[in-house]
Amino acid sequence: MTDELSSLGRYTGPATLVLSSLADGPKHGYALTKDIEHFAGIHLAPGTLYAALDRLVDHGLIEGLEAVGRRRPYKITVVGATALMAHLQAQRRVTETGLGRLSSAWGTP
């Protein structure tokens, strides 16, 4: 399976963060921002967040739900969950390889 998120190029990072946040259920923009700050320590500026949301909707990876007041929640789609899983598994291989090589070459744990 191809890593569909990597096809987003420089937008892969924000897309991965948004999809990871939505993996446990729907959220609106502010809730996404706070959740991403909590689990990743990264603040997505509103322009970055909403551009990522638009891109993910365009690719069918998330969908907007009915607005509640001024807040519009989004949820991950099956296609989005599958793409996120493939992307994270590819990143796990890179991480494990890098850590293993550092350990071998530099004696780091």
Write the layout of secondary structure elements.
Layout: H1 12-22, H2 29-40, H3 46-58, E1 62-64, E2 74-76, H4 78-106
Antiparallel strand pairs: 1-2
Helix pairs in contact: 1-2
Give the strand order, joined by hyphens, for the main sheet: 1-2
Quantity of strands, as a count: 2
Radius of gyration: 16 Å
The assigned structural class equals: mainly alpha
Strand content: 5-15%
CA(first)-CA(last) distance: 32 Å
- The CATH homology group name: Winged helix-like DNA-binding domain superfamily/Winged helix DNA-binding domain
CATH class: Mainly Alpha
Helix content: 55-70%
Order of SSEs: HHHEEH
| Largest beta-sheet characterization | 2 strands, antiparallel
DSSP summary: helix tally? 4
Task: Supply the number of structural domains.
Answer: 1
Describe the global form: elongated
**CATH topology category name:** Arc Repressor Mutant, subunit A
Assembly of the depicted chains: single chain
Explain the overall architecture.
The protein is mainly alpha-helical. It has a single domain (4-106), classed as Arc Repressor Mutant, subunit A, CATH 1.10.10. The protein contains 4 helices and 2 strands. The protein has helices at residues 12-22, 29-40, 46-58, 78-106; strands at residues 62-64, 74-76.
Summary of the model, kept short:
This protein is mainly alpha-helical.
